[in-house]
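Example S7 (structure tokens).
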């Protein structure tokens, strides 16, 4: 499918938030939270060690996004490429766009000499796991979280 992968711009922020809600991230409960979410996306777009790439179709609609963070590791000369969010909107899945977003993320990481890409994927995301396996990702660790509420 003919899509353009490009860095996100500030006017993409509402559409990026829409994709994050589709991914299952919390929706804002009030205007203050919405403002905080918008500012977080804005910061991610402007910080030099972070990036958001969006997939834009030929009509100019944003149909997917990936967020990227360069993470320094104490025992590594080069940062790791960490992907906290990746989503292609339902209607456009299985058309190669997720793979394009990953490949563009890898190109970004290569500019910073990253040697490894890391991400987590919830146990329930069985379809995403098949996608990552298809792209030759290895599943080699367990992820633990603990609620602090
Ligand atoms: C996971 C996701 C990003 C994949 O994006 P996508 O655009 O649908 O995937 P692609 O079309 O680029 O697929 C690339 C390859 O993976 C395979 N693949 C994708 N989804 C698959 C699935 N559910 N089962 C088996 N293979 C799958 C494709 O067939 C393709 O293989 P091919 O090159 O041999 O044809 C997308 O499905 C999505 O956003 N899912 C919901 C949110 C989510 O789970 N995000 C990941 C959070 S960790």
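Recovered sequence:
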């Amino acid at each position: 499918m003919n899509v353009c992968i490009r860095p996100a711009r500030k006017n993409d922020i509402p559409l990026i938030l829409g994709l994050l809600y589709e991914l299952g991230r919390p929706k804002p409960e009030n205007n203050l939270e919405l403002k905080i979410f918008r500012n977080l996306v804005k910061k991610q777009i402007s910080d030099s060690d972070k990036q958001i790439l969006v997939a834009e179709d030929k009509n100019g609609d944003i149909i997917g996004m990936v967020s990227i963070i360069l993470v320094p590791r104490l025992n590594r000369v080069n940062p790791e490429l960490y992907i906290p969010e990746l989503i292609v909107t339902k209607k456009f899945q299985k058309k190669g766009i997720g793979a394009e977003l990953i490949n563009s993320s890898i190109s970004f990481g290569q500019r910073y000499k990253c040697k490894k890409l890391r991400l987590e994927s919830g146990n329930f995301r069985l379809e995403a796991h098949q996608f990552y396996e298809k792209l030759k990702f290895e599943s080699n660790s367990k992820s633990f979280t603990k609620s602090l509420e």
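Notes on this example. Residues 23, 86-88, 93-99, 121, 125, 127-128, 130-131, 134 surround coenzyme A (CB under 6 Å).
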